[in-house]
């Protein structure tokens, strides 16, 4: 029950962020000033970033539904391809936007490293499943989606900074790092928890098999 609730909240958050990205993409009149500047200087790259990110965050959330994976494996594989391709495009676009950011070295390095981690974790996850390493694929896909969820956490922290009346120019260099690094730390804790759980189950089952 807890897993389903957490998955539901994650998926709902992903859908809301994806809808926001698509609205921003197709409704120029309501774009925030910061986003307007991105489209003004890097129109194609920014569009790829928003669209690819929207596809990745929704398809990725669906992939973590264990029931769907078991019952509809072909659909899981198709969505997985969409996820990988969307991150390859959005990740490269993110890196280009990061290194050209006007927020300074802290923003550029924070978002730049995030883009590199996003691409690296996803490519590694894809390579592992191509070698039929399912457990390794699951671990690296967990890390990949942790970075993808920066789209959610960034907006949560932005909202919090507004509530705390912190100026955007002061908050942004910090947000460039905390929107994704804590996500990866949580992902590692989840991965280790699952590994320990499997180990305990195997140890308990061993005497019975003997």
UniProtKB/TrEMBL annotation:
Descriptive protein name: DUF2306 domain-containing protein
Keyword ATP-binding annotated: no
Keyword Transmembrane: yes
Organism: Pseudoalteromonas xiamenensis
Record's keyword terms, sorted: Membrane, Transmembrane, Transmembrane helix
Top-level taxonomic group: Bacteria
Transmembrane domains' residue ranges: 7-27, 47-66, 78-99, 105-128, 140-160, 172-191
Phylogenetic classification of the source organism: Bacteria, Pseudomonadati, Pseudomonadota, Gammaproteobacteria, Alteromonadales
InterPro entries: DUF2306_membrane (IPR018750)
Pfam families: DUF2306
């Amino acid at each position: 029950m807890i897993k389903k609730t957490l998955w539901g909240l994650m998926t709902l958050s992903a859908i809301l962020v994806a809808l926001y990205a698509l609205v921003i993409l197709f409704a120029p009149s309501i774009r925030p000033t910061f986003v307007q500047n991105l489209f003004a200087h890097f129109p194609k790259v920014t569009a790829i970033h928003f669209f690819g990110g929207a596809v990745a965050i929704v398809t990725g959330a669906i992939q973590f539904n264990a029931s769907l994976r078991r019952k509809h494996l072909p659909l899981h594989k198709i969505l997985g391809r969409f996820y990988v391709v969307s991150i390859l495009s959005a990740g490269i676009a993110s890196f280009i936007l990061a290194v050209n950011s006007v927020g300074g070295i802290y923003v550029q390095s924070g978002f730049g490293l995030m883009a590199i981690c996003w691409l690296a974790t996803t490519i590694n996850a894809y390579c592992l499943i191509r070698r039929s390493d399912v457990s390794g694929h699951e671990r690296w896909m967990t890390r990949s989606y942790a970075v993808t969820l920066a789209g959610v956490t960034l907006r949560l922290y932005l909202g919090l900074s507004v509530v705390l009346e912190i100026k955007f120019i002061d908050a942004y260099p910090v947000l460039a790092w905390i929107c994704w690094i804590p996500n990866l730390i949580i992902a590692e804790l989840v991965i280790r928890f699952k590994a320990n759980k499997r180990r305990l189950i195997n140890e308990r089952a061993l005497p019975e098999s003997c």
